[in-house]
UniProtKB/TrEMBL annotation:
Hemopexin repeats lie at residues 52-101, 102-148, 150-198, 199-242. Keywords: Calcium, Collagen degradation, Disulfide bond, Extracellular matrix, Hydrolase, Metal-binding, Metalloprotease, Protease, Repeat, Secreted, Signal, Zinc, Zymogen. GO terms for molecular function: metal ion binding; metalloendopeptidase activity. Belongs to the peptidase M10A family. InterPro entries: Hemopexin-like_dom, Hemopexin-like_dom_sf, Hemopexin-like_repeat, Hemopexin_CS, MetalloPept_cat_dom_sf. Signal peptide: none annotated. Its cofactor is Zn(2+); Ca(2+). Pfam families: Hemopexin. GO terms for biological process: collagen catabolic process; extracellular matrix organization; proteolysis. The gene is LOC112394563. It is found in: Secreted, Extracellular space, Extracellular matrix. This is Stromelysin-1-like. It comes from Neophocaena asiaeorientalis asiaeorientalis.
Length: 242
């Protein structure tokens, strides 16, 4: 048994304070607030009618993103929070963490160098840091350089090594230069042109362990960017121990 620390803290910098140690030694008392981040709700959402079931074989996700070493899987007004510190994913209402964010989001991605996650719905997007929605948002997606014909983003992820963000819309994708803060010329391109085998509608995507994971309905494709091919087809909720 161990206490669960519910701040979105970089695991590489995670440590126990002396107060935490004392609490553990006195029969696992309530954890004290972390100095590294804001305190967030500690209780998972109890099951309700219409609530998505974690291991439903037909489960799909609206968006997936990393956040400070954790992975968030969004569905309708809920999200699962997957951490390497706990075996069982937490399940929460989006509004408990970010009251001003909408439900049913379209896309999300983390820019680790900025300690921000960008959330998209319709023609607007928000920036969050931990459980704080940053001032100055929402903004219009066209400020990123999309043409006026684009009304929404289907999926997105940011490659931390290449410092490029990829936006997927229907069967095409755009690439955004995070250093220059502008769309790269020569886009959009067909998704299958640079991601062979990804020929399904992309609902969500994120990067982990050097691979790209494309979600489409209840399935996900594990894509190796070096070999430029799909190497596994998995269930979408395999990340949730299903």
């Amino acid at each position: 048994m161990y206490p669960v620390y519910n701040t979105f803290t970089d695991l590489a910098r995670f440590h126990l304070s002396q107060d935490d140690v004392n609490g553990i030694q006195s029969l696992y008392g309530p954890p004290t607030a972390s100095r590294d981040g804001p305190v967030v709700p500690t209780e998972s959402v109890p099951p309700e009618p219409g609530t998505p079931a974690t291991c439903d074989p037909a489960l799909s996700f609206d968006a997936v993103s990393t956040l400070r070493g954790e992975t968030l899987f969004f569905k309708d007004r809920h999200f699962w929070r997957k951490s390497s510190r706990t075996f069982v994913p937490e399940f929460h209402l989006i509004s408990l963490f970010w009251p001003s964010l909408p439900s049913g989001i379209d896309a999300a991605y983390e820019v680790i160098s900025k300690d921000r996650v960008f959330i998209f719905k319709g023609n607007q997007f928000w920036a969050i840091r931990a459980n704080e929605v940053l001032a100055g948002y929402p903004r219009n997606i066209h400020t990123l350089g999309f043409p006026s014909t684009i009304r929404k983003i289907d999926a997105a992820f940011s490659d931390k090594e290449r410092k490029k963000t990829y936006f997927f819309v229907e069967d095409k994708y755009w690439r955004f230069d995070e250093k220059r803060q502008s769309m790269e010329p020569g886009f959009p391109k067909q998704i299958v042109e640079d991601f062979p085998g990804v020929d399904l509608e992309v609902d969500a995507v994120f990067e982990a362990f050097g691979f790209y994971y494309f979600f489409s309905g209840s399935s996900q494709l594990e894509f190796d960017p070096n070999a430029k091919k799909v190497i596994h087809v998995l269930k979408s909720n395999s990340w949730l121990n299903c």
